[in-house]
Amino acid sequence: LLAQANHEKRMLINQLLDLKGSIRVICRVRPMMSSDALTAATSSSSILEIPSPDTVILAPDRTERIVYDFDRVIGPSEGQEEVFNEAKGLVDSVAEGYNVCMLFFGPTGSGKTYTMAGRPGDLGMAANALAHLFRLAREVDSKQQVRVSASILEIHNEQINDLLLAQNQQQPKLEIKEGSAGVEVPGLTIKPMAGMQEAEAIMQRGRAARGRGGPEEATRSHLVLTIYVTCTHRSTEATSSGKLHLVDLAGSERLAKGAVTSERTKEVQAVHKSLTVLGDVIQAIQQKSSHVPFRNSKLTRLLEDSIGFNSRTMVVLTCSPASEDASETRSTLEFGLKARKPEGLTRQGSTSPKRHFLKALRSTNE
Ligand code: ADP
Ligand code: MG
């Protein structure tokens, strides 16, 4: 109970101090599923323990236990609503004119798409965020006019594809530009939407278009859903605009070296490089480094005005609890560790003596 109270207090403090440029890292552990192969070498028990709402312990075998601390750890029995609760404040700030970026990171099969897009009757982050924005729009209706629109693109082999083109439209060559209003992709389709029904239809179109290259290609491309929100004050005409990027990242898994075609190799290298650059960018921001290597990949160029500095970012690590996925789960958690604020820069009030910030503790069980 005390741990819970402390956790809630810490969450409040974190929300209050959720300053510009901050990066929150949360981890979601999916349930064990029947597709998780249970061979003789593996076991049916989870390799992840969640002793408190912000700690996860990776125990891949009897001899090793690695403790990871994040802003929040969401367990296998918690639903989409709990994940959304962690992001509500960020969605609010989009309506206030901030740029926000949510990155869903993990290997294929760990729950990125489920967490971001959900499934019918089980809304994911994107639909929950949109519903929240439409709710906010109705609440402020008398004073402000709120416009919501969206684009969906895919970055595949460092090339941008518009996923909202009409069937008969030719894919144009899209480039990233820095306009007066921030990063732009001239020519990209941006669809206005008035409510959830339209929003669902647009997201469905994006999903269908991503699927066209086959499921294999989908795991080796990044999908970026961007929601644009413009608020105009009815009497003063003062306008604020913010955008929310939701990024279903390419699978973070390392593929076995042999038996890959050259096309595959190219895809794998492109994914590996862009995820590495993303990690470097996040780390540079957390360390308040003077050089942030945004320019090194299309993805980070696209997100340049929405990560760090005057914006807010959330990294959602998705993890499988199955023992056959131990090494991928471990590298996902390590990515999250890299994305956390370095020690000394952590906010006051967010530490307690029992917590081991940034320390992957290894202990041997005798
Ligand atoms: P990814 O996009 O990372 O490859 P998916 O989101 O497609 O992974 O998830 C793989 C499978 O696991 C899907 O069938 C999905 O519905 C299921 N799944 C993932 N996370 C959860 C969860 N938290 N609760 C229930 N099912 C989940
Ligand atoms: Mg997916």
Automatic annotation (TrEMBL):
Residues that, per the record, bind ATP: G106, P107, T108, G109, S110, G111, K112, T113
An annotated GO BP: microtubule-based movement
Electron transport is among the record's keywords: no
A GO CC annotation given for this chain: microtubule
Region (Disordered): 339-366
Tree of life domain: Eukaryota
Keywords, ordered alphabetically: ATP-binding, Coiled coil, Microtubule, Motor protein, Nucleotide-binding
UniProt-recorded Gene Ontology molecular function terms: ATP binding; microtubule binding; microtubule motor activity
All residue ranges annotated as the Kinesin motor domain in the record: 22-342
Entry keyword annotation includes Ligase: no
Family the entry assigns: Belongs to the TRAFAC class myosin-kinesin ATPase superfamily. Kinesin family.
Descriptive protein name: Kinesin-like protein
Full-protein residues shown: 219 to 584 of 584
